[in-house]
Design brief:
single chain; mainly alpha; about 80% helix
Length: about 220
């Protein structure tokens, strides 16, 4: 009986702590924000590095913040921080959608340009595309720590079966599927509903616009 009472009290405390994390800003969120910001500023860092050699090391900031993501997600991996981990996951994954949409279509263009009858593009196009895919995958890996911590904590508090936890973790290492899976996880928690729907609409519009743009470019190249 005493054990049951203690267990109930622990669950009540956990619920209270998780509820507190549903609103407000925590300094913890600065780490995923810095990672996302460093990736969007990467072209600027490259430009600055070319003009001022001493600042060339700025291009390594995404790697530094990516490693910090791993360290912080391990330090804060506690049951009372479960919702906070989900919030960080949504922040990173949703904020990076425009980045991957643009990057993904640039990779697609490089592949398509390899079919243009220009000698150097036959070799350069696939090479650039493959390098882009490898770089994108490593960016994906550095995004994963928060969602892995969230899934681990969800399994620990019996919110999700272990086998499903493992499946969701595996899905985080595949382009597009990782974002769809995070949307499912957020909706499963009844969190971020309006934002998730808005992101789906926004992403669909962006993809349609970019597809039309690519088709237009390819048609112009064929006619010329």
């Amino acid at each position: 009986m005493k054990e049951y009472v203690n267990s109930t009290k622990e669950n009540d405390i956990l619920s209270t702590e998780e509820w507190k994390q549903r609103k407000g800003f925590h300094p913890f969120y600065l780490f995923p924000i810095m990672y996302v910001a460093s990736l969007y500023l990467l072209p600027f860092f490259i430009l600055i590095g070319q003009k001022a050699g001493g600042l060339s090391n700025l291009v390594y900031l995404p790697i530094v913040f990516g490693i910090l993501n791993i360290i912080v997600s391990i330090i804060f991996c506690k049951p009372e921080n479960r919702i906070m981990m989900l919030n960080a996951t949504v922040l990173v994954k949703y904020a990076m959608i425009p980045f991957f949409i643009i990057g993904g279509f640039m990779v697609l263009i490089c592949f398509l340009f390899s079919f243009i009858l220009v000698p150097f593009m036959i070799f350069l196009g696939p090479t650039v595309a493959i390098l882009g895919l490898i770089t994108g995958w490593f960016i994906l890996v550095f995004e994963a720590p928060y969602v892995i911590s969230y899934l681990h904590l969800s399994s620990k508090v019996k919110f999700r079966p272990t086998i499903m936890t493992v499946l969701h973790i595996i899905l985080q290492f595949f382009f597009v599927i990782d974002v769809i899976d995070v949307m499912f996880l957020a909706l499963r928690e009844r969190r971020w509903k309006k934002l998730t729907i808005g992101i789906i609409v926004f992403s669909t519009i962006c993809i349609v616009i970019i597809l039309i743009w690519i088709i237009k470019i390819l048609l112009e190249c064929n006619y010329s």
